[in-house]
Write a structure and sequence with these properties.
globular; 38% strand; Aminopeptidase; 27% helix; 6-stranded mixed sheet; 2 domains; alpha+beta; 7-stranded mixed sheet; 7 helices
């Protein structure tokens, strides 16, 4: 199934489609309120989507919660280091409100927090290198993403999407072993609101458990600080013990869980929010 579509609804940026059976309000234009709330309902009804998920400033929280949305996660000082972000959801299909992980998901978060008390030292052995990716790397990058992810909410399996992202303020970072690209991550940078989503982590199987994701995260943070970004966050698979631990060990705080939110690795999964002032 193709990735969901990113488009404009009025002046706001959304993603929607059957892959995750949801609408994702990625960036709200406040001028679209309150009418956009009705338009989201109509779009969800017409396409039989199971969930509407929105990232909004806390000042607009009541406008959504009075219309059936619930707060699933928060990131303080998200917008320009001042205003809190709330992630709110409306479950059109009541089954989508039931966690895919249950108590296991809570256990993974707690284990990650405990592991954060003794963070490992991160370094690369001499045969490894880490650097920003360029347009010349996109075919090799897409091949890694195809190997790691059975499905993904954005078309990172397509080299043209990766190249376009680089032109639109998404930075990609890669680790190479003796010249071979073996691990990747990205930072989707919002220069207006001074935040960045750390995402698209992928390590080919034979190179896992070597600390490469931690090194990529440190590399991305260093770059983001240099360009003035002050808040980093991620929306990580709740089922991934490794990635939750990586973010906790690098000082990220748990912000909440987005229930049955995203089609990734072949199924709709819970996603955990972690954040860190940079």
């Amino acid at each position: 199934m193709k990735p969901d579509t990113v488009t404009k609804l009025k002046n706001s940026l959304i993603q929607h489609g059957p892959l995750s059976s949801r609408i994702y309000l990625m960036k709200l234009d406040a001028a679209d309120l309150p009418g956009i709330i009705d338009e989201l309902d109509v779009l969800a009804h017409d396409n039989e989507y199971g969930k509407i998920f929105a990232k909004i400033p806390t000042v607009h929280e009541k406008e959504f919660t009075t219309r059936g949305y619930v707060v699933e996660a928060e990131v303080p000082r998200f917008f320009g280091g001042k205003t809190t972000l709330v992630m709110v959801s409306k479950f059109k299909d009541t089954r989508r409100a039931e966690s895919a992980m249950g108590e296991k998901g809570k256990h993974i978060v707690e284990q990650a927090r405990q592991a954060a008390k003794n963070p490992p030292h991160v370094h690369l052995r001499p045969e490894y290198t880490c650097a920003a990716c360029t347009g010349e790397d996109v075919d090799e990058m897409a091949a890694i993403y195809r190997q790691v992810f059975e499905s993904y909410p954005f078309p990172i399996l397509d080299p043209s999407f990766l190249r376009a992202g680089m032109a639109e303020d998404t930075a990609y970072y890669g680790v190479r072993h003796e010249g071979r690209l073996v691990a990747l991550a990205s930072a989707e940078i919002d220069r207006e609101d001074l935040n960045a989503e750390l995402t698209d982590f992928a390590t080919i199987p034979e190179y896992r458990r070597k600390g490469l994701a931690r090194y990529l995260l440190d590399t991305a943070e260093e770059h983001l600080r240099k360009i003035g970004i002050i808040m980093g966050y991620t929306i990580a698979r709740a089922a991934s013990r490794g990635m939750n631990t990586v973010f906790a060990q690098r000082g990220y705080a748990y912000g909440g869980t987005l229930v049955r939110n995203t089609n990734i690795c072949g199924r709709i999964e819970d996603m955990n929010v972690w954040y860190k002032p940079l």
